[in-house]
């Protein structure tokens, strides 16, 4: 791996983040507070995307956009603040399915603009840039790919005992709350996809690459699964620092433990670190932050060839999250040396 011999004058100047939705967005708030002058590029997961009611919905991109643009519902951590649900109620009155996924009235506007632009021939990258212009984001937000990728989950069929079927990840996550047995995660279309314009450059040219506490399988994992992205992460001269999404024996938020089980990974900080792997042994990590309560796992992680540090990882507020981001950048600087 190439190592730069001199640190930039103001380390880091350029930070690239591989982000899912809620966890990635919360971390980005802290990163901006910790390094307000850094040039930050976010590569967002698009495998959660789904077409509903004729509209193309990109949940993770929108959560990052609304969060950093000041439009997110602070209570739900997804969707718009001051949302109303008239359209959802009217669709239900017509008996339109699915009823388990509702789009708020304000949110619908975003999906209408996106769908119209995609139908007109614009790429998802161009559409995302246009949407973000309205919110004046302090980061550059890139979809991981302009190609259509959708995550499906092979589950026990709740309507036909003894049989299995594949359902969209959103149905598994939203409708069933990850409460039915899952056996396999399949990112449909991923094998033929290409990284979106700017993604590989953002990985190659950054000073630090950060993997925030997002879902390792269906958020970060699907980004890395786009052909060319994992290889770019392995080859970048920048240190790659991850933050554990697991504290103790459970996820910081969401149901990451459910999908980790489908790939045979235990819900522990050390198991997720080994799942990502060290760059020295063909993985992607140089450094890994774990919560102070998991410090006993540090030796196991270090034994896998990954620099490790234990710090508080609960993202309770922006100040605490900024301290996490600062710890990640400090570890990156130590790895570079």
From TrEMBL:
What keywords is this UniProt entry annotated with?
Magnesium, Transferase
Q: Which domain of life is it from?
A: Bacteria
Stored Gene3D superfamilies:
CofD-like domain, CofD-like domains
A UniProt-annotated Pfam family = CofD
User: For this protein, what is any one GO molecular function term?
Assistant: LPPG:FO 2-phospho-L-lactate transferase activity
Instruction: Show the SUPFAM superfamilies listed in the entry.
Output: CofD-like (SSF142338)
Give the E.C. number(s): 2.7.8.28
InterPro entries, A to Z: CofD, CofD-like_dom_sf, FbiA/CofD
Q: Which PANTHER family did the record assign? A: 2-PHOSPHO-L-LACTATE TRANSFERASE (PTHR43007)
The record's annotation in HAMAP family points to: CofD (MF_01257)
Q: What is the designated name of this protein? A: LPPG:FO 2-phospho-L-lactate transferase
């Amino acid at each position: 791996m190439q190592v730069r011999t001199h640190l930039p004058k103001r380390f880091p100047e350029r930070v690239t983040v591989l982000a899912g939705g809620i966890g990635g967005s919360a971390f980005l708030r802290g990163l901006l507070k910790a390094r307000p002058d850094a040039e930050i590029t976010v590569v967002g997961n698009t495998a959660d995307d789904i077409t509903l009611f004729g509209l193309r919905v990109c949940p993770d991109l929108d959560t990052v956009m609304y969060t950093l643009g000041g439009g997110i519902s602070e209570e739900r951590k997804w969707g718009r603040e001051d949302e109303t649900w008239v359209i959802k109620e009217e669709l239900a009155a017509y008996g339109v399915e699915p009823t388990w996924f509702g789009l708020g009235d304000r949110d619908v506007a975003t999906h209408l603009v996106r769908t119209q632009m995609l139908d007109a021939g614009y790429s998802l990258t161009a559409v995302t840039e246009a949407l973000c212009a309205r919110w004046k984001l302090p980061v550059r937000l890139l979809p991981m790919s302009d190609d259509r990728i959708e995550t499906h989950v092979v589950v026990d069929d709740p309507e036909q005992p003894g049989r299995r079927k594949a359902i969209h990840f959103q149905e598994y996550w939203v409708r069933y709350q990850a409460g039915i047995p899952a056996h396999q995660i399949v990112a449909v279309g991923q094998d033929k996809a290409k990284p979106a314009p700017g993604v590989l450059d953002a990985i190659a040219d950054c000073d630090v690459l950060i993997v925030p506490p997002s879902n390792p399988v269906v958020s970060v994992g699907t980004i890395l699964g786009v052909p060319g992205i994992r290889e770019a992460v392995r080859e970048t001269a920048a240190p790659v620092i991850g933050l554990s999404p697991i504290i103790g024996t459970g996820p910081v938020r969401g149901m990451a433990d459910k999908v980790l089980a489908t790939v045979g990974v235990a819900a522990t900080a050390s198991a997720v670190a080994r799942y990502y792997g060290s760059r020295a042994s063909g993985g992607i990590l140089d450094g890994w932050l774990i919560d102070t309560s998991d410090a006993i796992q540090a030796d196991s992680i270090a034994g896998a060839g990954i620099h490790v540090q234990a710090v508080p990882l609960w993202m309770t507020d922006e100040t605490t999250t900024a301290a996490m981001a600062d710890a990640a950048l400090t570890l990156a600087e130590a790895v570079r040396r």
